[in-house]
Amino acid sequence: MSNNKFKILSIDGGGIKGVFPAFYLALIEQELSKRSDGKTKIKDHFHLITGTSTGGIIALALSFGIPAKEIYDLYLKNAENIFGKKRGFFGRLRHSSHDREFLEELVRNKFKEYFKGEDPRIKDCLTNVAIPIYDLIKGNPSVIKTPYHPNFKRDLHIPIYQVAMATSAAPTYFDPYSSDYIDLDGMERPFRNKVDGGMMANNPTIIGLLEAIKAFSKEINDLEILSLGTGYKKFTEGSDSKRKKWGLIYWMVKNDRKRLIELFMQSQSQLVENYISLLQQGIDKTEQDNPNFVYDRVNVLLCEDDLIEMDESDSNRIKNFAELAMAEYHERGSSILKNHFY
């Protein structure tokens, strides 16, 4: 990191749609592999990585130097086992759509592979991370953090795979995550009823910005932020819409889409995007010629053919979705590399 800027990477939630940021970052690492200074991994270029849900899994993996290509391959090769055994309609009336055992074992083994066969903990991350979750025990949002501030001692013991499972426990898709762990002093601690951070921070860019200002004592004009989405589709129903039935079937069942959850997560992402743009460029972009900090948002507007559900399991559809990342990279990759990696 050659300049004095404080560099933040943020990755949205979105289930299997995490292949979009994973593949985008794999393309960046392909370019970084040509460097002669050894800074060939994403983690070498950011002071703080924040991610929610699938973005949280990716953020934690990147913080260990796990190549983005390996994360992408992990999703692609295992989607059928993660999401392919979806419960039927009546089963989903009482239970979540999927069991998480396979995903938990998959993620846990990948982290152990990069930590000599042991379970790494939050304190072991090689760059700082901030991972939002929702805590059903306390009834409030929470952010799991590496100890980058003297007061941040609560989370450093937690095994990383458990944090990954907690932040990705999307309601109706997976049960809330519950487990226990042995802390560094040998005491058993509960880690129970944690829910997907996408409930309040599907786009965690604002978390990264506030942590930089308050925990790292940075000025806003010291920041360089790269924010990666997972694709979005505009939710529109015109005033002349003939729709009369707006009940549970439309919002949670019709065409096997959970529109209500999609709407919550997407609207939060869009709101954060708008606020970050406001902070960077001012009201009505009156400061765009002299922005307050460096900020790039990489996302893609999805048409009906591109749209996949968060629990899509068909590898061909997932590959086609990831190809959207290649198109975005070809369009803006050189400027992203220039702004955040050189």
Biggest pleated-sheet summary: 8 strands, mixed
Number of E-state strands: 8
- The share of residues in helices is 25-40%
Strand fraction band?
5-15%
Report mean pLDDT, rounded to a whole number: 92
Shape: globular
End-to-end span in angstroms?
A: 8 Å
* Model regions low in confidence, pLDDT < 50 over at least 5 residues: none
Q: Class by helix and strand content? A: alpha/beta
**C-alpha-based Rg, rounded:** 20 Å
Order of helices and strands: EHEHHHHEEHEEHHEHHEH
Tally of contiguous helical segments: 11
What would you note in describing this structure?
It is built from 11 helices and 8 strands. It is of the alpha/beta class and about 350 residues long. The chain is about 40% helix and about 15% strand. The model has no long low-confidence stretch (mean pLDDT about 90). Strands 1, 2, 3, 4, 5, 6, 7 and 8 form an 8-stranded mixed sheet that branches. It is globular and about 55 Å long. It starts with 5 loop residues before the first strand and ends with a helix.
Give a brief outline of the structure.
The chain has 342 residues and is of the alpha/beta class. The protein is 39% helix and 15% strand.
